Amino acid sequence: MATVLSRALKLPGKKSPDLGEYDPLTQADSDESEDDLVLNLQQKNGGVKNGKSPLGEAPEPDSDAEVAGAAKPHLSEVTTEGYPSEPLGGLEQKATSSLVSYIRTSVFLLTLVISMILVLLCAFLIPCPPRDLHSTWSRHLGSQAGGDLSPLELADVNGDGLRDVLLSFVTSRNGSAAGSSRSTANLVCLSGMNGSTLWSSPLPEEAQDITCLDLMPGSVAEIICLVTGTRKMLSAFNATSGKAIWTLNPNYLSNGTLAAPVVLLPDLDEDHVRDLVVLAIGETQPDLCFLLVSGRTGNPIGRPVKYNIVGVGNLIGPQVYVTANGAVYILFGFGNIQAVALRDIFVQAQNRDSSPPSLQIEEPEWEKRRSINLSELIDVYSDGVELLQMVKAPDSNCSNLLVTTRQGLVLLRGQNLTPYWTLSLQGLRSQPTPGYFTDDQTLDFLLQIQDGLGMKKMMVIDGDSGSIAWSYSAPCHMKDAPTTSAVTSDQKSVFLFWAEGLSPASPNSDALMGAEPPSLHHLYLLHPAFPSIFLDLTNTSGTVTASEVGINDLWKDAFYVTRTTGPISEGHPAPLVVSKLSLRWALMEGQMVQLKETAPKIGRGELRRFLSRIKFVDSPYQI
Predict the structure, then answer these.
(1) How confident is the model at residue 397 (pLDDT cuts 50, 70, 90)?
(2) CB neighbours of 212 closer than 8 A, spacing ≥ 6?
(3) Torsion angles phi and psi, residue 589, rounded to 5
(4) CB of 349 within 8 A of CB of 328?
(5) Which residue stretches belong to region Disordered (predicted)?
(6) What is the mean pLDDT of residues 196-224?
(7) Contact in structure between 591 and 140 (CB atoms under 8 Å)
(8) With 433 labelled, which of 64, 76, 531, 594 sits at a CA distance of 20 to 30 A?
(9) Contact residues for 157 (Cβ-Cβ < 8 A; gap 6+)
C-alpha cells in the first residue's frame, strides 16, 4: 500500500525534492492496475478530470508515444477549464478588425486635412469686408466759386457695405477771354473708404438737394440719386455709374422755378415705381403749382396744379404726411402750414373725377379743418412758422409734427393736429436735432439758441413734456453751425455740435471761454450718461456748412462727414474740404472737458471703459 501511495504521489512532469526526478522508463514498466489506481486516487482528490488537470496542465503520458505527442501539443487542446478553445478563425477576425480601425482612422484624418485646406482657401481667396475702424480722411476738392447751398448725401453706391459721400459744388474755370471765368456745377461721388473719386458728372446748374433712395421698395433695383437744381433741373442719376437716367423737361415748369427739393410719393401710375412731386413758384408769390412726375421716366403725370397762397415768412415744405389710416396729404405754406390731399392734386392733374383706391382714404380729424366753402386747403398751423419736421411718434405708425416758430417750439399730434406741448423760446433759428437723451424712449431735441454776442446756448428739450432737460452756454462765432446725433445700441443718442475751444471750468462763469482765436472751432460730443462732460473730437479753422452721420452696420460704428469751406484769402475763392471721422476711434482719442468744477469728477479710465463699449445702430426714427 505504501508503494502504491508513493507512486501515486509522483505527479507527471513535476519536480519534487522528496520524490526525485520524473522517469518515463520506470513509469512505462508499471502495470495497468497501478495506473488505474493512481488515476482513481487523483480523481477522488480533485485531480485530473476528462484528461485535464485543475490547473490547466496536460495529463501525464503513459507511453513513449504519448510522451512524443505531448512534446508538441495542439494549440486548441491546451486550454483552461471554463474557457472555450479559440479556433484559427479568431486570428482572422482580429486582423480584419484591425484593418477596419486603420481605415476609419485614415478616413477621419483625411477628412480633417481636407476641411483645414478648405478653411485656408476660404480665408485667402474670399475677400474680407473692409474694416472701417480707423477710416479718418480729408479730401480737398479745389476752390468753390460761389454757391450758397451745400448739398450732402450718404449712400452705398459700390456695394462694399460702406456708405459713400455725394455732394455738388460750383467751380470756376478760366474762359478764353483774358480775365474771364466760367462757373460750372458738378455732382461728385467720393469713396467712403478713402475719399477717392468714384465718379463725377457735370450739372447744368447748381444743385440745392441730393436724395438717394430706392424707387422700387422690396426689389434689387439699383439706388437712384435725385438731384434738384436751383432753377429748373430735376434729374435722376444711377448711383453706381453716375450716369443720368432721365431729366425733367424744363418746359413743363412754364415760367416757374423749383422752390424746394423733390418729394417722394406712392406709386400713382401703377408701374411699380414710386412717383414724385415738385413745387414750382413763379415770380410772384401767389403763383405756386405742383407737378406730379413719374419716377420711372421723368415725364409729368398730368398737368401742373396751381394754388394761390398768400403768406409772410419762409417757404414751408412741401412734405408728405401719411396718417395712421393711410390718408396722404401734402404740407406746405409761407410762414404757415397748409395741407392738401394728394387725391385732390391727382384728380386735377388728370382732369378726371376718379382716383386710385389708395388715394381715396380720408382722415376725419383733418377733413374737419377744411374751410366753410369746402376749399381743398386744410389749415394746420398759422403762427409765424419757421421750420417743419416730421417726428416719429412712440408706439405708433404715424408721425407728429414739430413746428419751429419765431416764438418757440410746438409739437402737434399727427392724429388730430392738436398741440401736445408748447415751449416759449426766443432766438431759435436752427433746426432741432432729434435724439434719445432721457430714459422714457421718447425722442428729445437738441436746440441752438443765440445767447449774446459770440455765444450760443445748447439746450435739450424733453420730448414727452416739452421741459428743458439740459442746457449749457458755449462760445461760438460760426453762423448756423450744424448739429446732429447718432443712436447707440442701448437706445441712447450721442449729440454732436460745434463750438470754440473750451478750457477748464471757472468757478465764476458758466461758460468755458477758451484762449484760442474764434476762427478755430471744435467738434464736441455729449452723451446722456455724462451730462457734465464734453468730448473734444476734432477741430477745424474753416466753416462747416453741412454734416451727416452714417452707420457702418458691420462694425457697429458711426462716421461723421463734414463739408467745410476754408478761410478765404484775398483774391482767392474759398477751398472746399470734405472730411470723414470714425466716431468709435474718435471717442477713444478725444480729449475730456469737465464742464463744471462742482460736478462729480470722473476718472479717465472709467470714461474710456464706458466709451469702448458703445456700439452705434441705424436710427429707428424718421424725420
Answers:
(1) confident
(2) 153, 154, 155, 157, 166, 223, 224, 225, 226, 239
(3) -100, -10
(4) no
(5) 1-89
(6) 90
(7) no
(8) 594
(9) 164, 166, 189, 198, 212, 223, 239, 240
Which residues neighbour 68 within 8 Å (Cβ) at sequence distance 6 or greater? none
Tell me the CB-side half-sphere exposure of residue 442, using CA atoms within 13 A.
12
Backbone angles phi, psi at 107, to 5 degrees: -65, -40
Question: Over the stretch 492-525, which tens digit does the pLDDT of each residue have?
Answer: 999 999 999 886 544 344 445 555 556 789 999 9
pLDDT grade for 600, boundaries at 50, 70 and 90: low
Sign, CA torsion 144/149/155/157: negative
Query: Residue 396 has what pLDDT?
Result: 78
- Averaged pLDDT, 18-45: 45
Residues 299, 317: Cα–Cα separation, whole Å: 22
Q: Indicate the average pLDDT of the chain.
A: 81
Percent of the chain clearing pLDDT 70 (strictly above): 75
Q: Which residues contact 616 (CB under 8 A, 6 or more apart)?
A: 486, 487, 488, 489, 551, 552, 556, 557, 558, 583, 584
Spatial contact of 549 and 483, defined as CB atoms under 8 Å apart = no
DSSP conformation letters of 455-494:
EEEEEEE-TTT--EEEEEEEE---TT---EEEEETTS-EE
**What is the CB neighbour count within 10 angstroms for residue 350?**
17
The H or E element that residue 332 is part of is: strand 328-334
Q: How far is CA 570 from CA 53, 567, 573, 574, in A?
A: 124, 10, 8, 10
Judging by DSSP bridges, how do beta strands 257-258 and 244-247 pair with one another? unpaired
C-alpha cell at position 193: 473708404
3-class state of residue 124 by DSSP: helix
Q: Give 568-578 pLDDT, tens digit per residue.
A: 666 677 889 99
Supply the pLDDT for residue 374.
63
C-alpha cell at 353: 373725377
The dihedral through the CA atoms of 187, 191, 196, 199 has a sign that is negative
Phi, psi of 406 (to 5 degrees): -70, -20
Bridge partners, residue 188, by sequence: 167, 200
Q: Which of 5, 58, 63 is nearest to 29 (CA)?
A: 63
Sign of CA dihedral 30, 31, 34, 39: positive
- What residues contact 472, with CB distance under 8 A and at least 6 apart? 457, 458, 510, 595
Beta bridge partners of 226: 211, 236
46 Cβ neighbours under 8 A, 6+ residues apart: 54
The rounded Cα 331 to chain-centroid distance in angstroms is 31
Segment 274-297 mean pLDDT: 88
C-beta separation of 152 from 165 below 8 A: yes
SS3 state at 220: coil
pLDDT greater at residue 237 or residue 21: 237
Type of residue found at 43:
Q
